[in-house]
């Protein structure tokens, strides 16, 4: 199944059009693509490069808690959302350190600046962990995924718990065509640190199996998509576990699927590697609700990937 992902990478390299982007990095891009993963045949954690499953677990649990502050992530040594919180801080009147304009690109191109940036971001993360007031001001990312999934705000001032609602429908109305969760709330998009890339997902129950289809409007294929595949596969497993169903397929549908220009060499290296067997997912069978799962309740076994491949993140 991993060949589905590698075929996408190759298609973008071969056929992608050059496009500018918000970060100024530039991409090769295609529009409209779909991959399918049979979750009965193994857990889709890529093997052509090591994908850090601990980060995927902690991020998904963060979403499921309805949390939007990076403090929880930092407590679990997860730094994948740091840059967006840090960007908000350095643009604020409270920041008085070195100039951090375009820090993402400059950190790649300038070794001396990269060290200054690292020091400033480390100080920022430490302060998020230690200072409640600072964390409340600059650790929060706005109404990102966790908020939309668990606390969607209505025009009447009420909240909708979309995850709980969809779980209840899967249990009691499994043939419904409304098993949908949306993270794209047009009213909240302007105030989010990063508008949702994975915007909407739908579940489908057939033959005692739960499948999930994700629509992703924007996909960083080298860095982000391996996380997205594993995260939604894990979410499908967790909900299937609570609903006492087997897992079916994860269907990944893309809008703009792109490779950043400064990721091309890394993608080519990954494409040169052989595919290995997917690992197995093990869940704590004593937990009955997906909201009760903690890090130690979710494990993978027999994961033997190629080494990780580093690449800069575009902010």
Automatic annotation (TrEMBL):
<feature type="binding site" description="in other chain">
    <location>
        <begin position="217"/>
        <end position="220"/>
    </location>
    <ligand>
        <name>dUMP</name>
    </ligand>
</feature>
<comment type="similarity">
    <text>Belongs to the thymidylate synthase family. Bacterial-type ThyA subfamily.</text>
</comment>
<dbReference type="GO" id="GO:0005829">
    <property type="term" value="C:cytosol"/>
</dbReference>
<comment type="pathway">
    <text>Pyrimidine metabolism; dTTP biosynthesis.</text>
</comment>
<keyword id="KW-0489">Methyltransferase</keyword>
<dbReference type="GO" id="GO:0006231">
    <property type="term" value="P:dTMP biosynthetic process"/>
</dbReference>
<comment type="subunit">
    <text>Homodimer.</text>
</comment>
<feature type="active site">
    <location>
        <position position="197"/>
    </location>
</feature>
<feature type="binding site">
    <location>
        <position position="220"/>
    </location>
    <ligand>
        <name>(6R)-5,10-methylene-5,6,7,8-tetrahydrofolate</name>
    </ligand>
</feature>
<feature type="binding site" description="in other chain">
    <location>
        <position position="22"/>
    </location>
    <ligand>
        <name>dUMP</name>
    </ligand>
</feature>
<dbReference type="InterPro" id="IPR023451">
    <property type="entry name" value="Thymidate_synth/dCMP_Mease_dom"/>
</dbReference>
<feature type="binding site" description="in other chain">
    <location>
        <position position="228"/>
    </location>
    <ligand>
        <name>dUMP</name>
    </ligand>
</feature>
<feature type="binding site">
    <location>
        <begin position="177"/>
        <end position="178"/>
    </location>
    <ligand>
        <name>dUMP</name>
    </ligand>
</feature>
<feature type="binding site" description="in other chain">
    <location>
        <begin position="258"/>
        <end position="260"/>
    </location>
    <ligand>
        <name>dUMP</name>
    </ligand>
</feature>
<feature type="binding site">
    <location>
        <position position="314"/>
    </location>
    <ligand>
        <name>(6R)-5,10-methylene-5,6,7,8-tetrahydrofolate</name>
    </ligand>
</feature>
<dbReference type="GO" id="GO:0006235">
    <property type="term" value="P:dTTP biosynthetic process"/>
</dbReference>
<dbReference type="GO" id="GO:0004799">
    <property type="term" value="F:thymidylate synthase activity"/>
</dbReference>
<dbReference type="GO" id="GO:0032259">
    <property type="term" value="P:methylation"/>
</dbReference>
<dbReference type="Pfam" id="PF00303">
    <property type="entry name" value="Thymidylat_synt"/>
</dbReference>
<dbReference type="InterPro" id="IPR036926">
    <property type="entry name" value="Thymidate_synth/dCMP_Mease_sf"/>
</dbReference>
<keyword id="KW-0808">Transferase</keyword>
<protein>
    <recommendedName>
        <fullName>Thymidylate synthase</fullName>
        <ecNumber>2.1.1.45</ecNumber>
    </recommendedName>
</protein>
<comment type="function">
    <text>Catalyzes the reductive methylation of 2'-deoxyuridine-5'-monophosphate (dUMP) to 2'-deoxythymidine-5'-monophosphate (dTMP) while utilizing 5,10-methylenetetrahydrofolate (mTHF) as the methyl donor and reductant in the reaction, yielding dihydrofolate (DHF) as a by-product. This enzymatic reaction provides an intracellular de novo source of dTMP, an essential precursor for DNA biosynthesis.</text>
</comment>
<dbReference type="InterPro" id="IPR000398">
    <property type="entry name" value="Thymidylate_synthase"/>
</dbReference>
<dbReference type="InterPro" id="IPR045097">
    <property type="entry name" value="Thymidate_synth/dCMP_Mease"/>
</dbReference>
<dbReference type="InterPro" id="IPR020940">
    <property type="entry name" value="Thymidylate_synthase_AS"/>
</dbReference>
<keyword id="KW-0545">Nucleotide biosynthesis</keyword>
<feature type="active site" description="Nucleophile">
    <location>
        <position position="197"/>
    </location>
</feature>
<keyword id="KW-0963">Cytoplasm</keyword>
<feature type="domain" description="Thymidylate synthase/dCMP hydroxymethylase">
    <location>
        <begin position="4"/>
        <end position="315"/>
    </location>
</feature>
